[in-house]
Design goal:
- By secondary structure, this protein is an alpha/beta fold.
- The longest helix is centred in the last third of the chain and has 16 residues.
- Helix content is 37%, strand content 24%.
- A five-stranded parallel sheet has the order 6-7-8-3-9, with helices on both faces. It has a four-stranded antiparallel sheet with strand order 2-1-4-5, covered by helices on one side.
- The two termini are 32 Å apart.
- Helix 3 crosses helix 4, helix 3 runs parallel beside helix 6 and helix 4 crosses helix 6.
- Helix 7 links the parallel strand 7 and strand 8.
- It is built from eight helices and nine strands.
Amino acid sequence: MALLSLRNIDFSYGKTPVLKGVTLDFEEGKTYCIVGKSGAGKTTLLSILSGLASPTGGEILYNGEDIKSINKYEYRSKYIGVIFQSFNLITKFTALENVVLSMDIASVKGSVRDKKNKALELLKSVGLDEDEANRRVLKLSGGQQQRVAIARALSYDAQIILADEPTGNLDEETQKEIMDIFKELSKQGKCVILVSHSKSVAESCDVRFELTRLGKR
């Protein structure tokens, strides 16, 4: 059974339809890439998957259960880890503080020391050492900030990782390193869903879904 499913999803902005009849299944242990031209609804679909936006038609199933029956806050803070294109990190905080704050918001149990140790382990797992972990976010490169965003999304052990253009502003080498992290996460059983314009990112994923802009061929 799919971990996350969309069934006949429609979405409109006012009277303007963006998505119509979208049916997709996402499984654990795989990387997915949602592609399509600008205006096809890629980021909108990611917002629907994360519970940040509600479809105007159809249903979203998590482990076979309609997410309408799940507390939205619980769904977003426990089951889904979101990595935004602009990172959405708190720039006056260190990398470590950003990850610990994410744990606090998700009500992860443990002492302050336990959380800091876990955060350091997560940051190390995505390629940041202790010195970098203790730097303010503004002192980190774009690639390093993206790694912090990934560690933050992993901080409460979400089963599903959603990422909007996670390599959009990165050089080719850093892009490959970030994609290697995502592929490793899928090997660990995570379901990784990306939105990307990058052909190389799409080709490196296990499954590619293409959205077509409504009214366009």
